[in-house]
Amino acid sequence: MNFIASETKQKLRGGYYTPEDLAEFLTRWVAPTAETRVLEPSCGDGAFFPTLRGTGAEVTAFELAPEEAAKAMARGLQNCTVHNQDFLGWALDAKGGQFDAVIGNPPFIRYQYLPATFQTKAEQVFSRLGCKFTKHTNAWVPFILASMELLRPGGRLAMVVPSEIVHVMHAQSLRTYLGQQCRRMVIVDPQEIWFEGTLQGAVLLMAEKKASPDDHGEGLGILRVAGRDFLRQDPEAVFNKPRAINGKTVQGKWTRALVPPATLAILDAIESSDRFCRFNDIAKVDVGIVTGANKFFLVTDEVVERHGLHEWAHPMFGRSDHCPGVIYDEAQHCSNAATGKPTNFLWLDPSVEDCANGRAYIASGEDENLHTRYKCRIRKPWYTVPSVYATEVGMLKRSHDTPRLILNTVGAYTTDTAYRIQPLRGTAQGLVYGFFNSLTALSAELEGRHYGGGVLELVPSEIEKLLLPTSEDLVPDVERLDRMVRDNTVAETLEVQSETVLAALSKSEQMDLLAAWATLRDRRHRLPT
Description:
Blueprint: H1 9-13, H2 20-30, E1 37-40, H3 49-52, E2 58-62, H4 66-74, E3 80-83, H5 87-93, E4 99-104, H6 116-128, H7 140-150, E5 151-162, H8 172-181, E6 182-190, E7 192-193, E8 202-209, E9 219-225, H9 235-240, H10 248-251, H11 261-271, E10 276-278, H12 279-282, E11 283-287, H13 294-297, E12 298-299, H14 301-307, E13 313-317, E14 327-328, H15 330-338, E15 344-346, H16 356-367, H17 374-377, E16 393-396, E17 398-399, E18 405-408, E19 413-414, E20 418-423, H18 428-435, H19 438-447, E21 449-450, E22 456-457, H20 460-463, E23 467-469, H21 478-487, H22 490-501, H23 507-524, E24 527-528
């Protein structure tokens, strides 16, 4: 969990200065003239102002931080008014369709870090536009929503936005709204990270609003770029370059626009075939055990020995280094314990109070005020963790390359860093074996999300949508798969495994799926320039 006290001042303000070449490219695309009314909803120190100089455009800009607003004003841009006030509050009182163009770099601030008044205004923006609101949102989402409403029909919005606009769940309302409002949208998606001091990838959003309600629009296109040579090209040519996709791509996550048309056709055929299914057709997903204080409840053998807690200690796993393969057995458990990993889950009950060692350990937790944490203080007594059970199959919440199911042969417990999986039909071995293939790996990239650092994360509702073979006629060799996962690269293992698991597809189709997976995986792993 992230806490506001641990974040940097820059991150809390959400301000990362826009490089001049990006600002100049976006400004050229909106092509301001003396007749153009331009909105800059979060101008910072005025990074876009030099690109507007000499155009004669009438610029209305907003910046909440007084010191940044003063820097922007000092740039002396003619026909420009800088308002040192909250943009969302102003937008809620303004009339739509006022501006010909919107440019800028909206703030990247988590909802929980926003002051209460701003949180309220963000929610009001969603409500006014009929968009579903979530408290997991980020400040840039309502900024773009409000800006699009203020744009006239046929107007253009050009912004630097987080790359997560393509896939995160909290931006789904925005993606849907943009799909309804825009004639054409293009995401310029770099292989590199543009902003120093952050792992957050950024993209350019170029969106042209529909000229009339009857305009059905062209949809969405994503242009992958390497380096910055594209910035010297004609922005209009860049805007028209990527193939536009409509339909389910615009309605859901935009990751499908990163997949070649031939591979999308394979996926469409798979979705209508009875040889394949969604994950929720054959298995049930539940979160792992929620302790509220993992360091207290998940401990090493040394802690168990030192405090005499053997009676309450049970095997557990919860991190990728606990499970290098697809089997968690006694040998893996002992190996983890020998290297000092926290392999014990302390399942404490009121009987612990009858033991001097138990009482002392509980007291040590209370000395650290663990009993005052939310998840702990709502329990009576605070150290009794609910919903403690193990399943034959587990799955780590996050993965570097691709998610794996874990065959849990020792009945180990898992915390909320992993999921508990129960097969609804077939065997646990068959489920684990059939899950590891290029189709399911690609499906995970399309359904999941990632943040700074490029780690893939899936929540239960996303796991339930994953595509995989029905596996009913497979003879699972989980031991062989376990050895391959441990000894070979992920790509090699996916290719070999797919030949068996995806026998309903041709080798060419299997390789198409594998190549699409590799492209999306590599995109997640983008590095700073």
